[in-house]
Amino acid sequence: MMALLYVFIGVVVSLIIVMFIAPQNFELNRSIIIRKPVSEVFQYLKYIKNQDDWSPWKKKDPNMKQSYVGTDGNIGFISKWEGNKDVGMGEQEILSITENESVNSKLRFFKPWKSESDAYLRLTELSVSQTKVTWGFMGKNPIPFNVFMLFFNMDKTVGKDFEEGLASLKQILEKQ
Q1: What is the dihedral of CA 31, 32, 37, 40, to 10 degrees?
Q2: Which pTM was predicted?
Q3: Distance of CA 111 to CAs 66, 85, 93, 142, 151, Å?
Q4: What residues form the membrane-spanning segments (predicted)?
């Protein structure tokens, strides 16, 4: 009986230690080079509704319900969605726009679990006709949820979606 108590205490103490040493901050991004001037790429990316054309999540649920608040391409615009289990429910709000450089937004997920992340699209002019696009997001996993991230490979899972989305974006923009 005492041995079982010691094992239980050992497991609890170990879990508490892991909670405090497991990383709480995360960032994930992917980049692609698009053969278009930075101004053309930016004019397309600053509109959140255009993500419907290249986002991997729209492909996972083409019937998701969407609604919008504000004027797309402007700070404060909010795109809301509610979809199947693959896309869940949430919203994306444009927080800042820097002409030909970046679009920063807040991602709020409500289902299947609540979380917030800071998302970004960053553009770098490589030449007059080449633009590097970096798509990413970052955030915090509070204790004790940070422990679960030790067992979930976000880079492999979400990174694959980012790569698919950026490949679609490249295809769309280079055809224009």
Answers
A1: -80
A2: 0.84
A3: 15, 8, 17, 17, 20
A4: 6-26
